[in-house]
Design goal:
The complex is a heteropentamer, with one copy of chain A (about 400 residues), one copy of chain B (about 325 residues), one copy of chain C (about 350 residues) and two copies of chain D (about 375 residues). Chain B is mainly alpha-helical and about 325 residues long. Helix content of chain B is about 70%, strand content about 5%. Chain D has two domains: about 5-230, P-loop containing nucleotide triphosphate hydrolases (Rossmann fold); about 235-355, OB fold (Dihydrolipoamide Acetyltransferase, E2P) (Beta Barrel), CATH 2.40.50.140. The chains are: A alpha/beta (about 400), B mainly alpha (about 325), C alpha+beta (about 350), D alpha+beta (about 375). Chains in contact: A-B, A-C, B-C, B-E, C-D, D-E. The interface between A and C is large, with 40 and 31 residues. Bound molecules: adenosine-5'-triphosphate (2 copies) and magnesium ion (MG) (2 copies). The site of one magnesium ion (MG) has 2 residues of chain D, from helix 1. Chains D, E: Belongs to the ABC transporter superfamily.
Chain lengths: ~400, ~325, ~350, ~375, ~375
Amino acid sequence: ETITFAFSDDDPNYIATMEKLVDQFEAENKDITVNFVTAGYAQMMEQLPLQLSVGKGPDVAKITATDLLRYTADLRPYMKDPDGFAKLHGKSLELIRTPGTAPDKIGGYVASQTLNQPFVNVTLFEQAGVPLPAKGATLTEIVDASVKVAKATGVEIPFTMDRSGHRFAGPAFSYGAHFLKDGQLIFPDDAAKRYIADLYKWSQSGAFPKEMWGAAGGTRYKNMGDEFANGNVVTYLAGNWMVNPFIAKIGDAFDWTAIDPPCGDAGCVPMPGSTFVVAFQHTKAPEAAARLIEYLGSEKVQREIAEQFLILTGAQIDNPHYKTDSANAKSSMEAFARNVANVPEEARTIERTQGASAVYGSIVQRMSQLIVGELTLEEAYAQLAADAKGANVELAKYAAAAK
Amino acid sequence: MRVVEMPMAALQRLLGAARMPYVFILPNMVLFTIFVFVPVGLAIAYAFTGGTNLLIWDRPFVGLENFKALLDCGSYLTPSTCRYNLFWTAVHNTWWYTLLNTLGTLFFALVTALVLNRLTRGRGFFRAVFFYPVLLSPVVVGLIWQWFLAREGLLNSFLMEWFDTRIIFLLEVAWSRIWVVYVSIWFHMGFFMLIILAGLQAIPRDIYEAAEIDGTSQWRQFWCLTLPLLMPNLLVVTVLLLIRSVQVFDEAWVLTNGGGPGTANTFIVQFIYQTAFSPDLRLYGLASAASVLMGIALLLLTLSQLWLAKKAQV
Amino acid sequence: MIAFLTRTRHPGRFDLSDWLAWGWAILGTLVVAIPIAWAVISSLKTEAEINSFPPALVPRAAQTITVEGQAKPLSVWIRTAPDGSEQTVALVRRVGLSATVLDPTKPEETFRVPVAELRQLKEFHLQFSNYTEPMKQFNFLRYLWNTVFVTVVATILTLLLNSMAAFALSKYRFAGRNAMFALILSTMMIPLSVIMVPAFMVIVGLNLADNLWGVILSTVSTPTGVFLLRQYMLTIPDDLIEAARVDAASEFRIYRRIVLPLCAPALAVLAIFSVIWRWNDFLWPLIVLSSPENYTLQIGLSALQGQFNVQWHYILAMTVVTLLPVTVVFLFLQKYITEGVASSGVK
Amino acid sequence: MTAISMKDLRKSYGSLEVIHGIDIEVQSGEFIALVGPSGCGKSTLLRMISGLEPISAGQMSFDDQRVNDLSPAQRQIAMVFQSYALYPHMSVRKNLSFGLENLRMEKAEINRRVDAAAKMLAIDGYLDRKPKALSGGQRQRVAIGRAIVRQPRVFLFDEPLSNLDAKLRVQTRSEITKLHKQLKTTMIYVTHDQVEAMTMAQKIVVLNKGKVEQIGRPLDLFERPANLFVAGFIGSPRMNIYPGKVVSSGGDGVTLDSPHLGRFTVPGMDADVQAGSDVAIGLRPSHLKLRPTTPGTGGGTMVVEQVESMGHETFVYGRTSQSDELTIVHVPGHFEAETGTTLAFTFDPAFAHLFSAADGRSLKGARI
Amino acid sequence: MTAISMKDLRKSYGSLEVIHGIDIEVQSGEFIALVGPSGCGKSTLLRMISGLEPISAGQMSFDDQRVNDLSPAQRQIAMVFQSYALYPHMSVRKNLSFGLENLRMEKAEINRRVDAAAKMLAIDGYLDRKPKALSGGQRQRVAIGRAIVRQPRVFLFDEPLSNLDAKLRVQTRSEITKLHKQLKTTMIYVTHDQVEAMTMAQKIVVLNKGKVEQIGRPLDLFERPANLFVAGFIGSPRMNIYPGKVVSSGGDGVTLDSPHLGRFTVPGMDADVQAGSDVAIGLRPSHLKLRPTTPGTGGGTMVVEQVESMGHETFVYGRTSQSDELTIVHVPGHFEAETGTTLAFTFDPAFAHLFSAADGRSLKGARI
Ligand SMILES: Nc1ncnc2c1ncn2[C@@H]1O[C@H](COP(=O)(O)OP(=O)(O)OP(=O)(O)O)[C@@H](O)[C@H]1O
Ligand SMILES: Nc1ncnc2c1ncn2[C@@H]1O[C@H](COP(=O)(O)OP(=O)(O)OP(=O)(O)O)[C@@H](O)[C@H]1O
Ligand SMILES: [Mg+2]
Ligand SMILES: [Mg+2]
């Protein structure tokens, strides 16, 4: 039997390792041939949905978009040891299940869990003589400290985050905002408005330079990692997937670390995200797919990956020994690891909700307009609310059509 | 070729020479039908359906609802009063872009063609140079210029050197619009320049000699001879420019990181693309409706162009 | 000013308007060339150099030195001591504001100095790894072969089918001719990004998904090509075709032996355009093709552009790679292209 | 060596009929010229013979075989186009051999024929050149060569000389005549130049507005044009035409009166005329005498408008009283006259042509 | 009414000299024709006169004023181009008035002039049409009209008739002649057709390879061509040339011997010739007699190759023994002869032209 496995990652070493793992799997399962496919991120975003909607595409793939989860197959009947697998991956399997599917469905496994937390340029803080923000610092405190550092060291960007609704969401939760109420998207509520007003204020004062979100349009994702790696940024809100790239990119140019997520009225929320390795319904060889997933999701493989690439896997790996000699990376990973437990259920729910991406898109779009001055604060609130309402209407139609 | 010639000759004996044109046009038409007409038909059909499902047979028929939604507007001049204000912002942006790009390209292409027509030496070289950007892919053009205009790009390093200041070009609304137009002129000018140059070279030299004998000033030669005789070429150029301008997408999208700052460079095709391909909520019906509206507008624009030209000629 | 430029004047005289014309041409050349040249130069810089500001004109890289007792080569810096004296040092490690350095002449002795006292030494360096690295990361030859295959086959088919259609549309009178021509032309108004989804459904329906032929066949019949060739064929005298008919040539033979050779300039133009289009195609192959053995170069390259990192050094290098074949083709055929576009573009 | 017979041929483009029923019989091996003013349908008729233009009505036969529905190739005709229509991308040799290759002829036979034709036309030195590298006259010969090699049943020429300059035209004219003498193939030759027709053809068909005006030997047309149209068309410079009236019609001739020519008696009528009827009197410029050697009985005066002397011959243009049309007199050798002077001219009435003023029909021809 | 004087005019393109020092004096009001074979520099010379082409060396004066550096407009010339060069996008009226508008002339005056010119040329019916909608002859007249309205000092014509068909050419020829008679403006007329030059111009300049071969009245050129080139160029059909030798040279003439013509004595030489020197003997076709009325003393025989009968005149082409060139005989009226028969011809030695075989210089002209 032949199955296709589409895999994409930013880290070429990760891809190479994955390929090796697949080779091993093939060696152990002579009756199965795995077509290992590497694809770009854009490809996964644009091509897979189209293909899946017409029942085409790879049998197994690593995906990031939650709206593709509805195409996943239930592998439980084809697995050798579904219960062991479920036990190892625990609650993370929940993330793969879409509403209306079997409560014990195993569609694959969570390849990585991500948490959004700020990175800081430690060297700059040291040079400015400003202490690193302590645990429990609010976003305002973090930004203020960053501004001080920037002033003292002449760096241009005190604070930034990737141009992404997902990145935006973590602090929003800590401000006490809600995205969902009674299954309806509601955004922005009063807490969200306060957060938006703060961001706007910072963008105008230069604490969160306009260019970061403004010099782009639409819902386009824009990564600020290079700016941080080049030493232009004091504090950068990103996530654990950046640790590995930073080790290489920053080298010994300066010291850096991740710090705890900013706190607010509703706590200190590290926004969670996930990538999944799943099998799709249209596969003609569900058994082979199940075997591959079982192999890749096994404790041994997951531990190897986690330790080598500093990844927080969905599988529960105890005491991972991260293989890096970078003190910056180690301290960062610790910062992430100690916050896994702080993820509120609501943050996980919104990730899986249909329409969340639409709201994220609308946030990016409207925030940019606000920042470059196309909208006033009030107008931005109104537009966001209208967008959410529109999404609710369309989703209702979709639900109706599905029935 | 024998292999093809024999059956074709047999076909001709079978059908008669009069039916051979159909044989010649058939393969092209078949592919055209399959890969263009059918999808266009489907796209039009989509415009009348709703929901987020991609498969057309899974989509509910909604009549004119998508069109109504798009056209639901307080005032078409103020996009923020519209239900889909992004669409109308895009319409406004496209309109301005089309105007500036058409006029700008026309101007630069005309002047360059006049200059090259004048040069007695080096014409081939300059013609090649000006045409070269046409060969690049839009993505490459967008990337090169983004790289050139970046905060730490070459242009800013000159500004720093000379004026001790720098401009984040793609953050300022006015600058970014200017650059988008500039880059498309840079990109496409050579193509239109060639068409105009061909027109210039087709004007018989002796007409200018006759004009010189008639004592015509150079200025008058330009206005009374060159420009009117160039009209057919200028018309073609204008129509092509209009069509392309309204369809602007790739290079502007890459250059401005998706139409920024804010919505300053969000154009209609981007709206369509974004609406159809946004994760999670693919409003394909709405996107199709927008394309249909755009197609109609283009058709009207082109026809009115041709009509005006015809009227001017009589 | 335009009035100066209305036409070529007598050769041999050089007046103000000539100066203006040359000025314009040369300025325009710079405007065209500088961004491209800059991209090409930058593609040979190291990642650090690319991001440094202000940018340097020549590609440079940090100067390194191999020092006894150190595993890796060390970068070379100039240290300006507080007393103003200068000293060449090699950087061992850097932590925060201070750095551990050594004097290359006395490799055993390391000492700490503030980073502010150091200035890095750079030397001319072409970073070819910007080209080789990404090529290692994917199956470059395979992608190249696929791209060449798609480009060549699609171009040949485009030339063949479009010229046949153009022949029918220009040299015969038959029912439906004008309607077909208008229909073909009207599709020029449709941006293809808009019909991509239904077009993909058609591809799937024909079972051509993830098949190079799906990319090829769907791009073969171009309205531009038909239009361009038809306009050119209109200039071929009907007499020739009738002469061939009298000479007992079949209609296909007339097409093959008379019309095709005579269209060579227009065919060359279309060939160039077709090569450029197919070579630069990205979005459509991206949707149609899914297995790596079918990837084209552009898709392969796009895989470089990850979700998180804008790797300018790779992107620029790969941009240059995609530019190269087009540039080479253009250099060899530029006369054909520019003159062909001119002669067949409008008539 | 094919006889062609056309019976009531008609051609319509849509509802517009441009050929209105034409009957022509061409003998095997004959050299026929089709002449007529521009737009009269010469090319159309030729193309109908060739098979390039479908026949709307009537019948076309080659050697008694109906060919209406045969293609040009099946009719085995060869055609020389006004524009030559040489294949510009092929060498001369290839141009000549293309038609034969289409017939799947053997290589050796093709080469034999091409070489023979090239030799005959003295183009064997240029066989490897492209048409572009040939002069007008050489191209012309290649076009003829392409027709020859096919050894067709009928040669068709559509104004083959009109693209050549005067000198070359004279030369090629005689070459085509020679060719016909050698090959003895039926040839149909379209021209609007009556000098060509006169000097080359054995029989001339005069067409006008899609109808045949007259068919006959060149000198017959010159001596006895069937009507005013042919009289005006054949002969250069054209015949002078004057209005006149029949005074009396008797056994030995007809007495005419014309305001321009006075009263004179014409012998030997071809048709009956009534006294008192209006006629048109035609006189060729070479039959008018300004320096009479033998005094003619008819004559008039004219005011000189222009004198064109070519050295060995002179044309004097003058205006008789009350006349809109110029009278042209052909004087051999050199002749001088001031514009505005009045000259007397005489003619021999035997040379006068008479036409019915009502329908232009010829009443009397003239010996030359 | 302007006299033009050219002194040692030269023109070079780069290092290539194409006009090698030309001296011509044109009287005020004269009609001059520039003739010569293709590429001899006619157009170039005309364009130098017009001011379109800069003069490399020498002096050009209009009425004794040096104009070398004046623009065409300043020279006040008007030019009619071979291609007409009408402004295709302007109506006929606009075409005519365009040059006047350039001069800021008053509307009323412009209209007056345009209407007058249009009337004179009979194009007043087409004033609102575009050139595309005109026939060749009409376009020709518009081009002339455009020149007329400007009331120039000099009219220049560059082969203005070569795009017209034969009939129209004859007609337009006489119109231009008439125009010159009316306007009496100096006119310079380029043509490569010697018939045009002969019938229109008062003086002909024969150019060859950028040099003047002869300047003179048309009949002078015909009667006494200065050299073999002019002899061959002027006269249609061209002069027959035979090689010969001077047997003796005496007071009453020169006795010549030619393998083609036998021995005969020519009276009245223009230049001295030595006995024994080689000469070329020129005889015009119209001076050869096949049906001798008065027997000439010279004569020969030829084998007929072709006979072209035009009705009122016939050209017989034949070959004398040992000759590569055809002998052409012009016979008035109709004449018939079979190809291949041998005919004797005679001539009056007084009509023979003699040229030096060495340099082509004329030794003796002929009365016609
Ligand atoms: N395809 C056509 N459709 C309609 N009318 C046509 C067509 N072809 C020719 N005609 C008309 O038929 C008539 C005869 O045309 P034809 O070309 O035979 O003239 P011709 O005698 O060859 O003239 P010329 O000497 O100018 O070549 C003309 O009046 C022409 O306008
Ligand atoms: N721009 C030029 N550069 C170089 N040589 C030229 C140029 N223009 C003309 N000539 C040469 O000058 C010579 C004279 O050309 P010109 O056009 O005056 O000839 P012409 O007598 O008018 O010939 P035709 O009868 O063919 O018009 C020719 O040999 C031509 O090749
Ligand atoms: Mg014709
Ligand atoms: Mg000339």
